[in-house]
Amino acid sequence: MLARNNTFGLATLRRSILQQSLRRQIHISKPFLPHRSIFINPSYRRQIRLYSIEKQSNSNPKENKHASNPNSIKNSHNGSIDSKLAENDPNKIAPSTNPHTHPKVFNPTKEQLLAKATNFFSRLRIRFKWLMKRSNRPFNTDDYSALFSWLVMGNALLFFLATTTFFSLVILTANTVLAQEFVARKLGEFITKNSNLTVVFEHAIVPGWSDGKISFRKCFVSKRPKVSKTFIKGSSSEAYAASLIRESEEEQAKLEDDGNYTQYDVTIEEVNISLSFKKWVNGTGIVETMEIKGLRGVVDRTHVHWDPNDDARNYKNVYHPGDFEFEDFKMEDVLFKLKQPNGFREFDVAIYNCELTRLRKHWLFYDFLNANIMSGSYDNSLFTIHKRQRLDDFRIDETFAEESNRIKQHSESVEAIVDSHSDPSTKSQFQRVTRLRVDSLNVDHLNTGLEGPFGWITHGKVDMIGDLMVPQENKDLNVSELVSIIAESIRKEATRYRNPAVTVNNHHSHLPQNPSSTITTEDILNYFVLDLTIRLNNVKASVPFQTPELSYINYALIRPIVAYINMKNTFIEIHNRVVKNLDDFSGSWTIYDSLLMDDISAEVYDNFVDYVANEEARLVRMKKFGFWSLQLLLQLMVFGLGSLT
């Protein structure tokens, strides 16, 4: 009996200690039990269940009298045994002694959650939640707002930093069978802003993930007088057939323009572009780079006409915000038929390869003159534009420079054929020298519509070799020789013959009248020099029917110049130096609206005048020499007869 009482007392003591511990734990973790009950250890659940049973038994007085019942003692004894087992359970989390801290709750790992998954979608859901939150708890409002903010900011950063990739993702997402035309129209109108183009493509827009560009395949580009511009998806053959249909007079009256510009219908095999948000914000267009491969078509200029005595500068491009400025432009495999106005014959123009560091709409002609490399044919006449190569381009030390000078001295005889009119030391002052070359060009491309000396030549071939020099952009530039070049050009312009009978504008580039007082180092950077060598082969000339209305032409010298050309028709070489202001190329697209052709014609006329004067002086010298020779011969004959007598 005593042993039983001791056992009962020991069990009661242990039960009281366990009750106090459970009260403390339940008080601490009570707010979190409904949410985390699924993660509580099973032994911990047994302790909570035992505590709740004992609490109910203490609150019921009818059950207290049965506390001495052996069954209750046995149950309590079993409960103490369970408590001991719970204390020895390794999975049991020890209660925290700090009343202000929450107990550690067991969180299942991803591997455990995946092991309990039954199908593919549940595994996908678990992996997605684990990627987003590193747990398996349900999504709440904070999670949804964070995910939405992340999507918005991520797309915004992608649009700012990688515009091409952003549009590629948009195209890839929306480029379905039903949305292809809509995507093409919206993207095309956005890209071809400030241009009256009709673009039709056969294949879908393809984002190029390897090179980071957007590709357009089988594009048909047309610029014709239309009521509105379109960018749609369709067949290029049908679009070309539709462009050839003549519109009625009523529709012609509704057109936005009269068609007095270059019109074209071309088909492009592939166009690759990359986009830039920075350029779009700066107002230079959203297209950063462009690459054209496989262009075929017709360029029609038969609709172009000019008013009498019209100035070519009136047709320059007017700058608008958003005009394209490509940072890199490439073309290859380009062939089109060019139709000129005034009944000129049709001919083919081909571009084999073209690479430009930049191409700007407002400086189109000037950027093509400064191309890295460009080769092609113009009416079966080969032309090339490339950087001129010199032996001292990459000199490192004085030894290499001396060796280059020694080699240069041996090659002076060869270079003198082309560069006898230019100074190599002067060319070294320029940032780069671009070599332009045209071989065997028909002279009718130069004499059509011109009133200068080129207009007097009716037949023949022309070879042209030019060096285009752009000054260096630095403050340490030695401008003495460059100032002398510009001053010589100004002197020639000031002393050039002025025909008093002509009141038409001279149309020459504007140069300062007093170079000694107006030209500074900053002004040098606004000029470039063109050394042009023209070789006339097997040419014939005729006196013009109408007197040319050019202020620099002397009517009395037209016939001597024509006679000189016909006399030296086999080979005539003319060296010209043209100094132009870079502002003349602003908005120019051709050699005419930049006034470069007028300057070349004036230089050619001056050279012909010098040649005619030299020829006249040579004839005078020959006459004097012949008269002196005849006089000497007569004197010898008289002296001989005198000696015989």
From TrEMBL:
InterPro entries: Mdm31/Mdm32. Keywords: Membrane, Mitochondrion, Mitochondrion inner membrane, Transit peptide, Transmembrane, Transmembrane helix. Belongs to the MDM31/MDM32 family. Residues 54-105 are annotated as: Disordered. It is found in: Mitochondrion inner membrane. One of its GO terms (biological process) is mitochondrion organization. Its main location: mitochondrion. Pfam families: MDM31_MDM32. Residues 54-81 have a biased composition (Polar residues). This is Mitochondrial distribution and morphology protein 31. The keyword Transmembrane helix applies. The chain crosses the membrane at residues 147-172. It comes from the Eukaryota. Involved in the organization of the mitochondrial membranes and the global structure of the mitochondria. Also required for mitochondrial distribution and mobility as well as for the maintenance of mitochondrial DNA nucleoids structures.
